[in-house]
């Protein structure tokens, strides 16, 4: 059997040009150059950011003293504000007691006398005795008309014997208006 080869024969040292291999090599080289450029840019940016961060850390460290001084001043400011608030509350409340005592003395009639007047925080408790209910009613109405008292209520009225006389014991509560 005879074999016939009709394909052109190449020489041993002769190479043929392959466009696919050339295109692949060119794209590979271009990709490597592009990746290298991105890598270098990212390295430069990272180095720049590291130096900026170090500079910011130095700046923060230099401002720590000022920040501590600011915190100290802020604490002192709060303490002073609290002291001023206490002084204002004292100023507000210092006229309350004399004014209340003056008004109580003018509201109390001959048939009514007071046993105890107590102010706790913003609440005022008054305990007293009276011979008749009308005096108690007039006293409570007079208290409710005072501008610096609010929510004036007659809590209880009881009959009791004191020094051989039957009297009415009453308790009035109200709030000090601020």
The overall pLDDT, averaged over residues, is 88
Task: Work out the helix count.
Answer: 3
| Overall tally of domains | 2
CATH architecture of the largest domain: 2-Layer Sandwich
Radius of gyration: 49 Å
Instruction: Report strand order across the widest sheet.
Output: 1-2-4-3
Sequence stretches where pLDDT stays below 50 over 5 or more residues: none
What do we call the CATH topology of the largest domain?
Threonyl-tRNA Synthetase, Chain A, domain 2
Q: Summarize the biggest pleated sheet.
A: 4 strands, antiparallel
The first-to-last residue Cα distance is 127 Å
CATH hierarchy, class of the largest domain: Alpha Beta
Q: Which class best fits the helix and strand makeup? A: alpha+beta
Keywords:
2 domains; four-stranded antiparallel β-sheet; 178 residues; 4 strands; alpha+beta; single chain; Threonyl-tRNA Synthetase, Chain A, domain 2
Model description:
This protein has helices spanning 19-94, 96-107, 133-144, and strands at 112-120, 123-130, 149-162, 165-176. The chain is an alpha+beta fold. It folds into 2 domains: 19-94; 96-176, Threonyl-tRNA Synthetase, Chain A, domain 2, CATH 3.30.980. The protein is rod-shaped.
List the helices and strands and how they pair.
Blueprint: H1 19-94, H2 96-107, E1 112-120, E2 123-130, H3 133-144, E3 149-162, E4 165-176
Antiparallel strand pairs: 1-2, 2-4, 3-4
What's the short version?
The protein is α+β, with helices and mostly antiparallel strands and 178 residues long. It has helices at residues 19-94, 96-107, 133-144, and strands at 112-120, 123-130, 149-162, 165-176.
């Amino acid at each position: 059997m005879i074999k016939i080869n009709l394909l052109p024969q190449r020489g041993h040292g002769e190479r043929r040009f392959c466009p696919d291999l050339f295109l692949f090599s060119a794209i590979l080289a271009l990709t490597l150059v592009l990746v290298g450029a991105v890598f270098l840019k990212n390295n430069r940016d990272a180095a720049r950011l590291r130096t900026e961060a170090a500079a910011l850390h130095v700046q923060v460290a230099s401002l720590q003293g000022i920040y501590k001084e600011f915190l100290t001043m802020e604490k002192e400011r709060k303490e002073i504000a609290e002291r001023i608030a206490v002084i204002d509350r004292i100023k507000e409340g210092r006229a309350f007691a004399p004014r209340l005592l003056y008004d109580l003395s003018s509201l109390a009639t001959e048939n009514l006398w007071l046993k105890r007047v107590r102010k706790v925080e913003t609440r005022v408790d008054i305990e007293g005795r009276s011979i008749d209910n009308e005096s108690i009613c007039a006293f409570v109405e007079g208290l409710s008309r005072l501008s610096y008292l609010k929510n004036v209520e007659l809590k209880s009225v009881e009959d009791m014997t004191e020094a051989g006389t039957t009297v009415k014991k009453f308790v009035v509560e109200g709030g000090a208006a601020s």
